[in-house]
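Note to self: user wants both folds in one dump. Writing first protein now.
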Amino acid sequence: MTWGPSFMYYICPNCGKKFKYALDMIPEFGDDYGKCPVCGTMGTYEKDGARTKDDADYEEVDE
């Protein structure tokens, strides 16, 4: 049984953007994994796991 994708959830300490990265994207992003998609600042880790109740508050970074 699978719970779907797992994510790492972040908030940007610079601009306040909430965003998430799928764990399986670590190789694709490399050193940029965890950076804010708006300003490029390294995000502050909040939590990780399968989709949470407030998942819609976080923009998924996929590019």
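First done. Writing the second protein, which came from a different request thread.
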Amino acid sequence: MNTDTTGSWTYDEIVAHCRRYGIVLPEAQIKRMHELSATVSQTGLGIPRMPSKDREPALTFVMPTE
């Protein structure tokens, strides 16, 4: 289990992710992805979440039935 509270990815995780999806990038771009992953993860962790799915607001969009 990952105990990292920032949610950031390690460099090796980014390389594995790219390999898994067939993404071929130069070393400089992989390093940049690693830098950006920390910022994106910290931003995501700062977004308030509802404590329970049952307490989320009702959907306002209704699919048309016709």
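Dump finished. Worth passing along: Residues 27-45 form the longest helix (19 residues).
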